[in-house]
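Supplementary notes for students who missed Thursday's class. We covered one full example, reproduced here. Read the sequence, then the structure, then the short commentary at the end.
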Amino acid sequence: MDKVLILNISMSSTQDPNIGEDDTESYNSIDHDDEMPLGMDGESREQVEHVQNNTDANPTLNSAKNKGRKLRSKVWIDFDKKELPDGSYNAQCKHCKIVLSAGAKRGTSHLKYHLDHSCDAYKRVKRQKIDVHQQLLKVNETKEDGTTKVESFEFKQERSRSDYARMVVAHEYPFNMANHLFFRVFVKNLQPQFRLNKRNTIRSDCVKLYQEEKVNLYNVLDKINCRVSLTTDMWTSASVQGFLCLTCHYIDDNWKMQKRILNFVRVPSPHTSEHLCEVIMAKLLDWNIDKKIFSIVLDNCTTNDAVVREMLYILKPKNVLPVDGELFHVRCGAHILNIIVQDGLEALRDVIRNIRETVKYIRHSPSRIERFEKVLRQVRAPQTKLFYDVPTRWNSTFLMLINSLKFREAFSRLADVDRDYKLAPSSKDWDNVVVIVGCLQIFYDTTMRISGTKYPTINIFFNEFCEVYLSIRSSLISEHSFVVNMATRMCEKFQKYWCNSSVLLAIASILDPRSKLKSVEYYFRLIYNTPGEAEFNVTNVKACLHKLFSEYVVIDSRNRNGSHGSNSNAQNASSHTGESSQRLYSNRRHGLVMYIQESYTSEPTKSELDVYLEERTIPGMDDDSFDILAWWKCNASKYPILSNLVRDVLGTPVSTVASESAFSTAGRVLDDYRSSLSPTTVEALICTQDWLRAFATDESSNVVDGALSSISESILLDGEIDLRGIS
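Structure (token representation):
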């Protein structure tokens, strides 16, 4: 915990040690920047100010008897004018004490000349700007031995102003928070020197912060040695304006999954595929990552399919996509699960409505609640609260159905004792609820697993989606006709997703050292009708993986040769100034190295991919805490080329939404506050907030201005923190 000690007055450590007491005393009277010297007494200060600001005044610097002419020159700040017994005047330098004449006819030019050319004491103190103010000392207590470390603390307005802008952006505070009375009181008591700015100035600071962070992110994306995957989704403001959110995902050099919102740009209507493609490509060019794209994840709709075709039409001729764009388009897994679940819930639309209205009816008044509690005691039902769902979040509807099964008899009994209650589901309705809940359980469990971590890697999705597909197929032979109809619709939607994304999901599963080819071989035998069809699809996945790996081998070889080529060019450039024999020697040595390399490469050797696949799988298939990125980080030196491929594949997200939104079926809508801002300000706030959030939650981040680490530690120790918009 940091402590602050206050010292009343101290002088800067930069003070010249050669300045004596007289010099120090005289220093206080110097006007460094045409300001009043800090060391002047109150009377002198008033007199000099009066001379400077009111030339019609009759100043008296030394005595009330002085009848001389008015002292308008600022040089008198550094001289004392004294009247002699004979009525003449002289001027004594306050710094070196030299006495010069000060007659009315002499003027002040010789006094200025003395200060600028002759007075060494004046020059010394002019160079040494001693800041006489209240100093702060910060005391840091260490945890190990309890020792303390004392450091000086200097308040800086600009630094605090930048920190204030970060706070406003990260925590979504309004720009006019500086106008709040008690917030101003709090800041004034905390640091009286900090000046709170007005709304427009704070907004400008936030936009400036956005520009600075954008440059930092641009440099990061320019230096990373991997590809990035993209996700896009559309947002709507309260004024029904469309915004496109473009996000990139990648794995950094520390093998940590990273996500950054690149743009949150307003897209005018119409939102055609050509227009959306044009906006996306323009932003990719702005960020200079159009040649680093691995894949793009989109929701399932015909417009997005057309956007992909437009982008492939632009990117494929440039040969910048892996395997000629075969893995470029990835459909959102969370979206397909939501669509499938909606088909299941549609079969119970009337029952769900009755249960939802029942909960509303019972909770409408205390008398109805008491009546229902009495019914619960009569039928010996559990004394638990009724669960009310959020219609746009299907998981809450699913949980409401499960919860309502506990009150099956209570609802029927309530219809008997309360004549106004007409919403009790029939016995057949309850039977259908039991069946549908059983069918949807797999979707709920799968969504919970894939959204259990903040950034789930794609390798865990293959097994989960295979289980979902097999569950849907098993429902096709159900004894309930409505379940068969529901499963048929589900199967059609899932087939569209599976045909498009199964190869990438399978490749990601192969790159999991716990399963490798085993999961693909096992599930394909269950999914496809014949062993031949299963083997054909396994071979297709392996062929795509080997083709992808071959491209990475070529890229690695090109990078190595390019490095050698640059060295060779440098040697050739220097050889023009040297002897020809040295050039011939260098060429022969290079030829020997190339000959040795060609000799080894001509021999049949196993590739890194073959070696990886032939090695045994590691245990821990059921270990949910297994960190695949940490494993590949440790084995990157063993598989240098394959690890580059792994970074790009595992960096591909399977969903366009965050884990907390995986259950939501609602559209993405901006709140009223952000909708009231200009599109430029909205983009600055949303993007910068995302970048600050990523920085604050990154375990490898450095301390912000030397203070964020200790502050966060203190807050966490206290157990109270509000990181709205950060965590």
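Commentary. The chain is about 55% helix and 10% strand. Residues 531-575 form the longest helix (45 residues). If anything here is unclear, bring it to office hours.
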